[in-house]
Amino acid sequence: MCYEERQLEEVPMRKILNRYILKEITLPFLMTLLVFTFVLLIGKILQIIDLMVNKGVNILAVVKIVLFILPSFLTVTIPISLLIAVLIGLGRLSSDNEITAMKASGISLYQLLLPIVTLCVVATLATAIIGFLAPLSNSATKSLFFNILKEKASIGIKEKVFNDDFKGLVLYADRIPVEGNSMEGVMVFDNRLTKEPATIIAPQGYLSSNPESMTVTLRLLRGSIHSVDSDLKTYKKTEFSTYDVNLDLQTALAESKKASVKGSADMTVRELYRNIRKAEVKDDKHRDMIIELNKKFAVPFSCLVFGIAAIPLGIVSRRSGKSRGFTVGLFVVAAYYTLLLAGEAFGETGKIPPTVAVWSPNIIMGTLGIYLFVMAANEKPLPFSSPSDFTKNLYERLKRKK
Length: 402
Known about the structure:
alpha+beta, 2 domains, elongated, disordered N terminus
């Protein structure tokens, strides 16, 4: 067989190998991404179900809420899922001795880089795009809640809680039935007349909202009004069969919007860059925005770091490839985000430059991953291959030094 024919046979073999490795990694990646995203969504899902069942919010608004909050979760779950998927996929190949068979056929570890790095690049770009869209989705979520609140006034009112969202009023309801527009055991403290504030108590109340005028009317039934004059000498009690309290929803929404000042996490890349260049920005806010701007690029880049680090850790032969891959993946993720949080803390206080603080986890983990990959490619034993091995080796070294 001539050299040209051998090369022609190697090309389709490489394509088959690349597709095979991608298949082994893609399926665990999608399953892990689904599981982790669902776990993060559980807390929000319970609140969303309450809006749909108890508050009467339509299914279209619920779907919009879920879609709007997904980007902030996907920026975290995509890199983690990719790491665990590479560990599980290569761990399965290693446990079935397929990695050994590939090496015996003359396939080096460097030839496995192409499909894995390709998937890592795709995951990096996807995470970066989703991260850039996350601030827009957060703003859209807030706007959607404001619009829902205009139509369903009872959404912002919780039972057994003193609600002070309306200016000059404190509203308390002992129980809010399933339909959401009625209340039981209602108490209202009306401080709009500062000279003579009143406390209104009623066993029942009904809410009706007018989205156009942005007003909500609370109609109380068979209650009483209690007030004391400014000298604290005269006490008045007035009983009523029906009594209407007007709640200014427009003022409440305006104050909520003023209170929710846009933080650095809710700013887009353009807004962060524009605010960083402003000279009047204080040092702490300036550092915080630099950290957030660098995180827009550093967190997606962790997909490449995780992918390279997972290759040497995944090919170590073990019987339980999947469980081990999941355990090692969680250990690596915990180490990465510990470094990231520590770097942010030092960067916010100015002890180290903010840019270095954000990128240091990628530099440390990336350097360690390349070192382990080169050792594995040269058939050298790794210093550790699992959290237990790492802990054991660290303990032995400390014991030896002592």
